[in-house]
Amino acid sequence: MQNLGIPPFLPAGPATAPFHSRKTSSPPPPPSPPATNKSPNPARPRRPRRRGTLTLALPAAVMVGAGAGADAGIDRVLWTEAEIAARVSEVAAELAADLRALREPAVVVGVATGAFLFLADLVRRVDAPLAVDLVRAESYGDGTESSGRPRITSDLKVDVAGKHVVVVEDIVDTGNTVSCLIAYLEKKGASSISVCTFLDKPARRTANFQLVGDGKFYRGFECPDSFVVGYGMDYAELYRNLPYVGVLKAEMYKKDTSN
Questions:
Q1: In which pathway does it act (predicted)?
Q2: Annotated active-site positions, please?
Q3: DSSP code of 188?
Q4: Residue 232: exposed, middle, or buried by beta-carbon count in 10 A (0-12, 13-18, 19+)?
Q5: Quick one: which of 51, 57, 152, 196 has the fewest CB in 10 Å?
Q6: pTM (2 decimals)?
Q7: How many angstroms separate the CA atoms of 225 and 243, rounded?
Q8: Could you tell me the CATH number of the domain that includes residue 222?
Q9: Is 73 domain-assigned?
Q10: Is 88 exposed, middle or buried (0-12, 13-18, 19+ CB in 10 A)?
C-alpha cells in the first residue's frame, strides 16, 4: 500500500480529564481556654512518708549461696566420713545376723528423706535376703523442733502383712515419729517391727515407743542435744549432701528478731 502521509488510524480511548490539584486549608485551631488564675493540673499535696523497717524472718540457711560451700554454717564435725562408714558396717553385721535367722525375708522400710544415705549404705552391707521400701513421715518441716504431730504422707508399696519389718531412721529424738510408724505398720499386719536408727538422741525423748514381736532397737551413735545436719539430714533441705555429721551454728536457724 502506498503511504500517502496520512497517520495510521488509532482507536479512540475514553477521554481522560486533566488532573487539577486542589488546595485544602488546615482546620482552624481550637479556641484558647479562658484565662484563669488556677493551674490546669494542680499538683496534689504530698503525704509525709512513714519511716520504718519491715523484717522478714527467713531462715538464714536459705540465704546460703553465691559461692558458699556445702559446709557453710557448720560449727563443728561430730563424726567424720570414715567413722560413719566403720560404724555402719558394725550395725549392718549385727542386723544381718538377726535377719538370716528369720524364716522369710524381712522388709526394710527407710524413712524419707533423711535416712536415704544411711539406708543405702546399710542395706549394701547386710548379707541377708530382704525387700526395701520407703515411707515418708513429716514432723519437722523447715524448722528445728519436731511438731509432735507426725503424719504419713507417702504410703508403702510392699505388702508387710505377716512379715518382719525394720524401720530405718536417720535420727530418733522425741520418739513421736517412730511411735507413729510402728502403729502404722502394725495396722498393716507386720508380725514384728524393729527400729534401726543412725543417730539416737535420748535426751529429747518424750514418747516411749514399744517394739512389736521380736523387734530390736539398733543405733549407730548416741547424739548430743544439738541440731545436727549432714549424711542425709537437713535444715531447710540443705546440708543433706555432706559426707559427715556436723553441728549447725545457732545463727543459721534462729529467727531474726531485730527491727
A1: Purine metabolism; IMP biosynthesis via salvage pathway; IMP from hypoxanthine: step 1/1
A2: 173
A3: T
A4: buried
A5: 51
A6: 0.71
A7: 21
A8: 3.40.50.2020
A9: no
A10: buried
With respect to residue 222, please indicate whether it lies within any of the assigned structural domains.
Answer: yes
| Beta-bridge mates of residue 111 | 135
CA torsion angle 95 234 155 173 (round to 10):
60
Which contiguous run of DSSP H or E holds residue 21? none
User: Residue 168 belongs to what domain range?
Assistant: 80-140+150-242
First to last CA, the chain: 115
- State how many domains the chain has: 1
- Residue 51 in domain: no
180 within 8 A of 147, measured Cβ to Cβ: no
With respect to residue 72, please indicate whether it lies within any of the assigned structural domains.
no
